[in-house]
Amino acid sequence: MAKLILTHEVTGLGAPGDVIEVKDGYARNYLVPRGLATAWSKGAEKQITSIRKARKAREIETLDEAKAIRDSLQSKTVVVTAKAGNGGRLFGAVTTAEIADAVKAAGAPAVDKRKVEVGQPIKALGDYKVQVRLHPEVTATIALQVVAGA
């Protein structure tokens, strides 16, 4: 078993700064080459504390604050403009970063692109529902409208 420090959020394993133990092959072939984790060492404890401080600064502090932001987000319809062909199909897909930028442009509180969850890739014009994890206990559902543009 390999002992690692996560540098990015990995579904099913943990958040940045968490110390985990995984099988050697998973660490060597997947996590470390993709930059999702680094090998654990005593010197890496400083890295853990800096990652945790950065995460804490980005996190929404309280449950009440998260619920207020959720209510604010759910009351708005977010519009994303994307290039589309004749049949309404997009050239590419709408990314989580584009959704996060559109949320901010709509006058809602800024959302981290890593917290936006899109079920299936959005590759056509129309209306969609997108989840945003604001807090471990609070998830907002945003009405997303994809329209053709420049």
TrEMBL record:
<dbReference type="InterPro" id="IPR020594">
    <property type="entry name" value="Ribosomal_bL9_bac/chp"/>
</dbReference>
<dbReference type="GO" id="GO:0019843">
    <property type="term" value="F:rRNA binding"/>
</dbReference>
<keyword id="KW-0689">Ribosomal protein</keyword>
<protein>
    <recommendedName>
        <fullName>Large ribosomal subunit protein bL9</fullName>
    </recommendedName>
</protein>
<dbReference type="InterPro" id="IPR020069">
    <property type="entry name" value="Ribosomal_bL9_C"/>
</dbReference>
<dbReference type="GO" id="GO:0006412">
    <property type="term" value="P:translation"/>
</dbReference>
<dbReference type="InterPro" id="IPR036791">
    <property type="entry name" value="Ribosomal_bL9_C_sf"/>
</dbReference>
<dbReference type="Pfam" id="PF01281">
    <property type="entry name" value="Ribosomal_L9_N"/>
</dbReference>
<dbReference type="InterPro" id="IPR000244">
    <property type="entry name" value="Ribosomal_bL9"/>
</dbReference>
<dbReference type="InterPro" id="IPR020070">
    <property type="entry name" value="Ribosomal_bL9_N"/>
</dbReference>
<keyword id="KW-0699">rRNA-binding</keyword>
<dbReference type="InterPro" id="IPR009027">
    <property type="entry name" value="Ribosomal_bL9/RNase_H1_N"/>
</dbReference>
<dbReference type="GO" id="GO:0005840">
    <property type="term" value="C:ribosome"/>
</dbReference>
<dbReference type="GO" id="GO:0003735">
    <property type="term" value="F:structural constituent of ribosome"/>
</dbReference>
<keyword id="KW-0687">Ribonucleoprotein</keyword>
<comment type="similarity">
    <text>Belongs to the bacterial ribosomal protein bL9 family.</text>
</comment>
<comment type="function">
    <text>Binds to the 23S rRNA.</text>
</comment>
<feature type="domain" description="Ribosomal protein L9">
    <location>
        <begin position="14"/>
        <end position="41"/>
    </location>
</feature>
<keyword id="KW-0694">RNA-binding</keyword>
<dbReference type="InterPro" id="IPR036935">
    <property type="entry name" value="Ribosomal_bL9_N_sf"/>
</dbReference>
<dbReference type="GO" id="GO:1990904">
    <property type="term" value="C:ribonucleoprotein complex"/>
</dbReference>
<dbReference type="Pfam" id="PF03948">
    <property type="entry name" value="Ribosomal_L9_C"/>
</dbReference>
